[in-house]
Write a structure and sequence with these properties.
disordered N terminus; about 220 residues; about 0% strand; single chain
């Protein structure tokens, strides 16, 4: 799964312009679906959210492409917000069923535990902060739903996080994606974006491992 995800990311910068040329405005529907699924369906945490948004921004900056930056910001923010809302409802109504052992093939306990730890540590702000962390951003709304977080509180951080995540990624691509150095090493930039966004989760997991011996002694 991970290998396939990496391969799809590395081919995005070649595939997406071809799809735009062939299907035009219909590509917006495809982009909406990908962002919605990545944030809204808890079994698809490896879809290329960050890199796809960055690439869309860089293509929107090229006049020969048909992507409009304003449409991207509005449409994909709505996709991110709607996705998290659906994920929250799944967690709230089906969470205890989906966390049973027979579902562990699809819902990896490791990722779920990391999301639970992140949510416990940061509380409501985890909904916002988790947006910028691949994998965790897919599990955080699910975890919030399982924990019966009040929806009124959830939707506030959901909207703020969805708009901020999409805006940062798309505008970064719009302003920096067509710099000569970035274009020459686009595949490496995509991988770097993923690695950098995963860094907070890695640091959190490492810190938790270091804290375990101290907890065990107590």
């Amino acid at each position: 799964m991970v290998t396939a995800a990496i391969a799809s990311i590395l081919n995005l910068n070649h595939l997406l312009p071809l799809l735009i040329a062939q299907y035009g405005w219909l590509v917006y529907a495809g982009l909406f679906i990908v962002i919605f699924i990545e944030t809204g369906v808890v079994v698809f945490p490896f879809l290329p959210g960050d890199s796809l948004l960055f690439l869309c921004g860089s293509l929107a900056a090229v006049s020969s492409q048909s992507l409009n930056p304003l449409v991207l910001l509005v449409l994909l923010s709505l996709a991110a917000i709607a996705g998290d809302s659906v994920n929250f409802e799944i967690g709230q109504h089906l969470g205890h069923y989906l966390t049973k052992p027979k579902w562990q093939r699809w819902l990896k306990p490791k990722y779920l535990h990391e999301a639970e730890h992140f949510f416990t540590r940061h509380g409501s702000s985890a909904i916002f902060l988790g947006r910028f962390m691949p994998v965790i951003r897919t599990f955080i709304p699910f975890t919030a739903g399982v924990s019966k977080m009040p929806y009124r509180k959830f939707i506030l951080f959901n909207v703020l996080g969805g708009v901020a995540w999409v805006s940062v990624a798309v505008l970064a691509g719009y302003f920096f994606g067509n710099i000569a150095l970035v274009k020459a090493h686009f595949e490496l930039i995509m991988v770097a974006i993923i690695l950098i966004s995963l860094l907070p989760a890695a640091v959190m997991a490492l810190k938790r491992k270091q804290d375990r011996p101290a907890d065990a002694k107590e």
